[in-house]
């Protein structure tokens, strides 16, 4: 089994920055397309960003968030800059074993999910 673990969440003031990371237990992440999703209270799971052969972003985070890989550390990170209160939610990373051959923004395209990390942005 592939176990994904997110870290880096917390409380941050609007306009500030936060960096989330996703790692895997017992397996390298390099063969997987990786997506970040978030879910606010009472809301569905929303696409944020993805990386495979390319990077993709939700319109709401373009220019503010950046997704990247660090293969030496076996991590995928989500750099969040100029955060807004509407960025608040539980953030999940997910792995696509087809390396991005399925639609990047669809929850159903991903095979493995982490437990989530809470991000709270104060106004």
What is the topological layout?
Elements: E1 3-7, E2 10-13, E3 18-25, E4 33-39, E5 46-51, E6 55-57, E7 65-70, E8 75-80, E9 89-96, E10 112-113, E11 117-122
Parallel strand pairs: 2-11
Antiparallel strand pairs: 1-3, 3-8, 4-5, 4-9, 5-6, 7-8, 9-10, 9-11
Description:
The protein has 123 residues and is mainly β. 0% of the residues lie in helices and 50% in strands. The chain contains no helices and 11 strands. The chain has strands at 3-7, 10-13, 18-25, 33-39, 46-51, 55-57, 65-70, 75-80, 89-96, 112-113, 117-122. The strands form 2 sheets. Strands 2, 4, 5, 6, 9, 10 and 11 form a 7-stranded mixed sheet that branches. Strands 1-3-8-7 form a 4-stranded antiparallel sheet, with no helix packed on it. The protein is globular, with a radius of gyration of 13 Å. The N and C termini lie far apart (40 Å). The model has no long low-confidence stretch (mean pLDDT 96).
Q: What is the mean predicted local confidence, pLDDT? A: 96
Assembly annotation: single chain
First CA to last CA: what distance?
A: 40 Å
The helicity comes to: under 10%
Helix run count: 0
User: What percent of residues are in strands?
Assistant: over 45%
Secondary-structure class: mainly beta
Low-confidence stretches: none
Anisotropy-based shape? globular
Give a count of the beta strands, DSSP E runs of length 2 or more.
11
List the helices and strands in order.
EEEEEEEEEEE
Sheet having the most strands: 7 strands, mixed
Radius of gyration: 13 Å
């Amino acid at each position: 089994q592939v176990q994904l673990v997110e870290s880096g969440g917390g409380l941050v003031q609007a306009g500030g920055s936060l960096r989330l990371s996703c790692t895997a237990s017992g397996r390298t992440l390099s063969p997987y397309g990786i997506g970040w999703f978030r879910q606010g209270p009472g809301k569905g799971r929303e696409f944020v960003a993805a990386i495979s052969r390319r990077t993709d972003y939700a319109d709401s985070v373009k220019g503010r968030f950046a997704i990247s890989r660090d293969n030496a550390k076996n991590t995928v990170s989500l750099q969040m800059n100029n955060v807004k209160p509407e960025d608040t939610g539980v953030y999940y990373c997910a792995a696509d074993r087809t390396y991005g051959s399925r639609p990047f923004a669809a929850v159903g395209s991903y095979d493995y999910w982490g437990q989530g990390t809470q991000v709270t942005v104060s106004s």
